[in-house]
């Protein structure tokens, strides 16, 4: 229901009465194209399906005609699984033209007519247009007998129909099973980045913002949802109903959404009056309550933080049974994978809760970053995704401090560093042309590096100034599009709107005049500085050399797997230079010192003599630090003497950087391992888990390679070293979030290493659970461990598979599926893959994570890889090239390889795919990763072996 109290801050334009202001702001953002070329050089143009010349040869649409408003009518039939639809697009002609180019994919266009303003005024019927189709570019051309005149508006009416799509894109079907065993179908859209064109012919580029008035016809057993609140429902002859929705705000096509389903919902009202509802399949209704609480809190938070109202009167969050990614931020109608929205207190763990909270926080942040202000083109998708990811940190820290999200954020930065320190990485702002390239842009770099450099900038500017800048950016570009540079300008604007000016200087309320001057100087730097982080790929390494009170700093490009002595190292360093806002603290004071390292080398003077310096305080910077000379030894000594002298996040970053430096050949593995020795006294759980993570990783590497002596010794070392803390763990869900995560991690490790007390307890719980016919509530944090131990017997495995079929909790199903994938029996693993390919018991949406999990199992790695090689064509029928699942399948089944033979095999496979026309960025990433693994083992296996011998 619309809330009349809310003052809408947008300007809807319907009919032919759009204001000139709107035209100007649209036009100024377009660039001109080679429009007249058509007449000059017909040979350069492609051929349409019917053999005629298609009048446009570029992937990007021309800008002579722009859309203002879409009237869209859709009637899906959930029995025949198709839809009929029609639309009227009101367009503005900017340059006279004889054709209109639109996007359209897999749609049957039945009829197209055109009316001028005059035709409409005198109610003259539309003139029928000829339609040409060029599927390679997913475009259609409407040919106009007489030229459309510049500065006039026209209305294009199109009737079309299509099947509901099979996969996860466009307007597709999704099914679910009820408790009673009935299978039901719903119809749902998922458009980002380039799939709106599968649902209706449109100008499917983010810059073509328009208003949409949507009508959905449905049966009375269903409901229809769309971006906006419903205005009315009309009853039609024959019992069908037609829902009319309010006209949307001005927005990009990829954010349009509609759903026809029979779901139930829970609703609440945010402080500002927005009605928030969570929708799910009827039997899953009981799992929707946490999402409602979280989304209300988070919506309140964002409205306050951004000082901009969420502009719609309602916000729906819907759990879709078949969903390719994690969630999608359609304006007012956010769609989620069930496991990203539903929370089942009986089976969802503390990590599951954090995930649900994060995803809601992420998608709600997009309602501002992405929906209100959209990137001009997909090359800057990081402006959407990096910001939404960064805002997860800001909002979850305030709304759910008990989830202690901070340390996870740090981990996220570490994850992308792995990727960004390979030569195959790419700049944040990167060219993207084809649909496949555009899909590939949704990667760790855009999301995680984007978020991490924003966090670094916030730390540099101060929270207050950063926040002011982003609010300025959001307000300035509302209902419009922005690019990289616009963001930096907003963050550097000499005078932000709320500052007062006098005598040519800006004075912000809380700063003294002299502070303001310093701030101004910093302002100038922002754009220059951020260009070094967004336009060049990679991550810098800061090398610190302390000599007395003098600190010599040097920056270089950090490369994982390429050593300084390698011949290619020099060339890979050329022309890389960052403006690095470094911070450091010393052994003699708690103060945080700041400096901008802009040149290759620099020298700093310490105020006093100190035994150690620690750079990158709290790990807020996106760089790795190496301490030359006695630097590392001094820090290790401090950790051993009293680790609490260093801040917890600094301890985490020391562990992280040390092991990264080992991969880059700058630190020996035994030095990094020596650093972890202090961990038995570590009081911070995230730091302890970070150390444990590396030791576990080495265990898995050697186990996969069958290096049994090292594997055995490592197992011995881990169990001996962590025994006291393992034995302290209880098998229940008590304690803080990190207590619970420590418990889950330690017991998982202990059972994996066959630690007898762990296996015994897990077996006991599993038997009790089976005896109770799955009714017994096992503590959620150990659920996955108990299932995994249970899955090791045939009876347990079969029972788990039966429970998988019955369970209504996505969180539980994920845990069961993981457990099933840890079986040591290849025929069982193969059975899982078959079920995943069939897509009934194990849904297609879960196939990629399943293959990934099987490939992590030493007994499944070869099986999963062979399967992918042999079934590539089948996999491509299920998922688009460049999509999340395809990339996950490739990297998940190959990037752990660590031998030359494996590298060769993977290379050959990729070559064959390239020969078939499939080329993905992930191929190069995988090849580099495998080469890096090979090198790591060659160098470090003997060191690891020796270190263990002296340590156990
Ligand atoms: N906008 C994306 C959804 C998306 C992903 C569209 C890939 C097109 C291609 C959405 O906001 C998103 O980022 N979803 C994430 C979840 C998030 C919490 C990291 C996802 O799907 O994994
Ligand atoms: Zn996102």
Give an account of the 3D structure:
The strands form 8 sheets. An 8-stranded mixed sheet has the order 5-4-8-2-1-11-14-13. It has a 5-stranded mixed sheet with strand order 16-17-18-20-19. The chain has 952 residues and is an alpha+beta fold. It has 31 helices and 31 strands. Helix 10 crosses helix 11 (463-476), helix 11 (463-476) packs across helix 12 and helix 18 packs parallel to helix 20 (737-752).
Uncertain stretches = 1-35, 494-517
Largest sheet: 8 strands, mixed
Treating each run of at least 4 consecutive H or I residues as one helix, how many helices? 31
Counting helices, strands and paired strands, the structural category is: alpha+beta
Percent of residues in beta strands: 15-25%
Distance between the termini: 68 Å
What is the helix fraction of residues, given as a range? 40-55%
Number of strands: 31
The value of Rg in angstroms is 29 Å
Average pLDDT taken over every residue: 92
The shape, in one word, is globular
């Amino acid at each position: 229901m619309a809330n009349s109290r809310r003052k809408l801050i947008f300007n809807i334009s319907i009919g032919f009465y759009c204001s000139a202001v709107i035209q100007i702001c649209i036009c100024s953002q377009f660039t001109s194209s080679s429009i007249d070329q058509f007449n000059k050089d017909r040979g350069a143009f492609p051929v349409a399906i019917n053999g005629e010349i298609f009048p446009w040869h570029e992937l990007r649409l021309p800008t002579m005609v722009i859309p203002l408003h879409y009237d869209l009518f859709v009637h899906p039939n959930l029995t025949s699984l198709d839809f009929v639809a029609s639309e009227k697009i009101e367009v503005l002609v900017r340059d006279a033209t004889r054709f209109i180019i639109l996007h359209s994919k897999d749609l049957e266009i039945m009829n197209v007519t055109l009316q001028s303003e005059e035709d409409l005024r005198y109610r003259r019927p539309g003139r029928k247009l000829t339609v040409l189709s060029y599927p390679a570019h997913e475009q259609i051309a409407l040919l106009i007998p007489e030229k459309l005149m510049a500065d006039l508006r026209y209305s294009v009416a199109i009737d079309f129909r299509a099947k509901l799509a099979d996969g996860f894109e466009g307007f597709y079907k999704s099914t679910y099973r009820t408790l009673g065993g009935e299978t039901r179908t719903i119809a749902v859209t998922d458009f980002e980045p380039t799939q709106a064109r599968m649902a209706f012919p449109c100008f499917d580029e983010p810059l073509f913002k328009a208003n949409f008035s949507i009508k959905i016809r449905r049966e009375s057993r269903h409901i229809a949802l769309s971006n906006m609140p419903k205005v009315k429902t009309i009853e039609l002859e024959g019992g069908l109903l037609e829902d009319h929705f309010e006209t949307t705000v001005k927005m990009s096509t990829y954010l349009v959404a509609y759903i026809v389903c029979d779901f139930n919902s829970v609703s609440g009202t945010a402080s500002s009056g927005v009605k928030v509802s969570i929708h799910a399949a009827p039997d899953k209704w009981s799992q929707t309550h946490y999402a409602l609480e979280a989304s209300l809190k988070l919506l309140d938070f964002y409205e306050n933080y951004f000082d901009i109202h969420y502009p719609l009167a309602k916000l729906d969050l819907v759990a879709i049974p078949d969903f390719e990614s994690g969630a999608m931020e359609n304006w007012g109608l956010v769609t989620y994978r069930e496991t990203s929205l539903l929370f089942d207190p009986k089976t969802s763990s503390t990590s599951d809760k954090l995930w649900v909270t994060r995803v809601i926080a992420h998608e709600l942040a997009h309602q501002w970053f992405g929906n209100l202000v959209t990137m001009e083109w997909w090359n800057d998708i990081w402006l959407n995704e990096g910001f939404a990811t960064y805002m997860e940190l800001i909002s979850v820290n305030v709304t759910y401090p008990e989830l202690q999200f901070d340390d996870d954020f740090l981990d996220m930065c570490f994850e992308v560093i792995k990727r960004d320190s390979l030569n195959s990485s790419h700049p944040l702002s990167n060219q993207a042309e084809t649909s496949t390239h555009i899909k590939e842009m949704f990667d760790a770099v855009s999301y995680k590096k984007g978020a991490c450099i924003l966090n670094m900038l916030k730390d540099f500017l101060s929270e207050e100034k950063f926040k002011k800048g982003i609010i300025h950016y959001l307000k300035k570009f509302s209902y419009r599009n922005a690019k990289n540079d616009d963001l930096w300008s907003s963050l550097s604007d000499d005078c932000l709107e709320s500052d007062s000016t006098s005598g040519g200087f800006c004075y912000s309320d809380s700063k003294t005049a002299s502070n303001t001057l310093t701030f101004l100087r910093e302002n100038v730097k922002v754009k220059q500085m951020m260009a070094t982080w967004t336009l060049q790929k990679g991550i810098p390494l800061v090398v610190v050399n302390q000599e007395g009170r003098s600190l010599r700093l040097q920056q270089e490009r950090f490369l994982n797997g390429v050593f300084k002595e390698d011949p290619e190292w020099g060339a890979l360093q050329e022309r890389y230079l960052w403006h690095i806002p470094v911070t450091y603290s010393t052994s003699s004071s708690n103060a945080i010192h700041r400096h901008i390292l802009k040149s290759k080398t620099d020298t700093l003077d310490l105020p006093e003599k100190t035994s150690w310096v620690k750079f990158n305080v709290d790990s807020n910077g996106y760089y790795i630090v190496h301490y030359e000379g006695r630097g590392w030894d001094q820090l290790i000594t401090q950790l051993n003497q009293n680790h609490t002298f260093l801040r917890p996040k600094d301890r985490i970053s020391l562990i992280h950087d040390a092991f990264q430096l080992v991969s880059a050949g700058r630190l020996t593995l035994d030095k990094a391992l020596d650093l972890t020795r202090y961990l038995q006294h570590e009081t911070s759980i995230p730091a302890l888990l970070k150390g444990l993570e590396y030791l576990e990783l080495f265990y898995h590497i050697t186990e996969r390679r069958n290096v049994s002596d090292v594997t055995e010794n490592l197992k011995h070392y881990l169990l001996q070293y962590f025994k006291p803390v393992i034995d302290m763990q209880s098998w229940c869900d008590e304690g803080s979030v990190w207590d619970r995560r420590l418990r889950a991690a330690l017991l998982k490790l202990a059972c994996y290493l066959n630690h007898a007390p762990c296996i015994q307890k897990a077996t006991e719980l599993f038997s009790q659970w089976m005896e109770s016919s799955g009714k017994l509530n096992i503590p959620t944090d150990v659920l996955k461990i108990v299932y995994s131990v249970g899955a090791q017997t045939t009876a347990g495995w079969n029972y788990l598979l039966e429970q998988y079929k019955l369970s209504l909790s996505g969180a539980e199903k994920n845990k069961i599926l993981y457990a099933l994938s840890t079986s040591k029996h290849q025929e069982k693993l193969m059975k899982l893959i078959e079920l995943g390919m069939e897509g009934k018991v194990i849904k297609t949406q879960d196939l990629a994570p399943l293959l990934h999990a099987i490939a992590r199992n030493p007994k499944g790695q070869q099986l999963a890889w062979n399967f992918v090689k042999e079934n590539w064509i089948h996999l491509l029928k299920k998922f688009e090239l460049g999509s999340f699942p395809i990339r996950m399948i490739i990297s998940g089944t190959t990037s752990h390889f660590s031998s030359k033979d494996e590298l060769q095999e993977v290379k050959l496979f990729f070559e064959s795919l390239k020969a078939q026309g499939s080329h993905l960025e992930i191929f190069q990433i995988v090849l580099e990763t495998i080469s890096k693994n090979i090198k790591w083992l060659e160098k470090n296996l003997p060191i690891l072996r020796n270190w263990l011998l002296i340590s156990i």
